[in-house]
Amino acid sequence: MQLSISEGEYKSRIEKVRKVLQRRNLDALYLTNATSIFYLTGYSFISTERPAALIIPLDGKITFIGPELERDHAPIKTRLIEDVKTYLDYPGEKHPIERFAEFLTEMGLAKKRIGIDNKAGASAMWGYKGPPITRRLPEAKFVDMADLVPKMRLIKSPAEIALIKESAKWANLAVSLLQEYTTEGAWDVEVALAASLDTSSIMKKTLGEGFEPLRNIFPVSAGFRGQIGEMSAIPHAIGTRRKIKSGDVIIAEAGVEIGGYSCELERTMIVGKPSAKQKRYFEAMVKAQEAAIQKIKDGVECSEVDKASINAFKKAGLIHLAKHHTGHGLGLEGHEPPWLDIGNKEKLRAGMVVSCEPGIYEVGFAGFRHSDTVLVTKDGCELITYYPRDIEQLTIT
What we know:
Blueprint: H1 7-23, E1 28-31, H2 34-41, E2 53-57, E3 63-67, H3 74-77, E4 83-87, H4 96-106, E5 113-116, H5 133-136, E6 141-144, H6 148-154, H7 158-181, H8 188-207, E7 220-223, E8 249-256, E9 265-271, H9 276-295, H10 302-315, E10 327-329, E11 336-340, E12 353-356, E13 359-362, E14 366-369, E15 372-376, E16 381-383, E17 395-396
Parallel strand pairs: 1-5, 3-4, 5-6, 9-17
Antiparallel strand pairs: 1-2, 2-3, 7-8, 8-9, 10-11, 12-15, 13-14, 15-16
Helix pairs in contact: 7-8, 9-10
């Protein structure tokens, strides 16, 4: 299969941007968001304190401006960036934003109308400080275009959906290995590393020489993040000091990058025979997820999906244990719009891809959350992830 977005699709995205620039009487688009830069060009780089930007002029060469260490990197990864302008390092003898102003002047943009996603002209990463580009080019007119690329990303193309579906195949394997490798006395970090390594190795052998990670150093991220036993009640736990034991509720999760895109797959598992309370909470969570999935359809408000899981938890008498909304968009980032939240009246549209992951968490006891990746369709939705969801198959004996 195609393991990345084609150059032709990237070109069509750039053409859409230029049509918007033309409609809004703008001479260029200035992007500082690394995900937006990748979405339009296929070029991914490690964002640091060193500012970087992509300039897409209405007429002229698409130009990357950034640190010298990216000069030789960009041409290796994309043919869509036609020029690379660099400075040595940050903060430098001359601040990078001063150099950016010089570069834009060289491109004939010093007195033009420029759409921009961040009027500082640089992402404030890792302690970056600097004057805004608007101050260094006072005769230019900068227009807020922060929503342009994110809105383009909302509806996934057939190629994007295919990559997310391929991601789901390997996430399925990764969670399967997490479940297989989980034993009493094991440290969750060791289980995670083993499952991630084995999935990565099998994936590379299967997909062949053409496969490479484009946005992450490691293509497979599988593990538990410390969500073991009582720590499973902390949805965004990072780690735990103790090892896995009988009676633990554990939350396994996996994401796999294919062509820059990833699904999300999470499963609640139980080590040993589930208790009556564990069964009750588990089944309530599954019913809430099922209620939310049934609501997902083109034209339905995001708030309605969240309300469905909320009502299911209320019916079970467990709404006081809910700590987050039902889900969020997926694609190039682990969290992106739209938000399946009671306060979001935005309507779902066919081609959107979202997570569905209502959960409940009792501190000192356990947390219960499945997450599935769901494609919105005209008639309803399609579950892209497909690992077993019932308690019988998720019990580790």
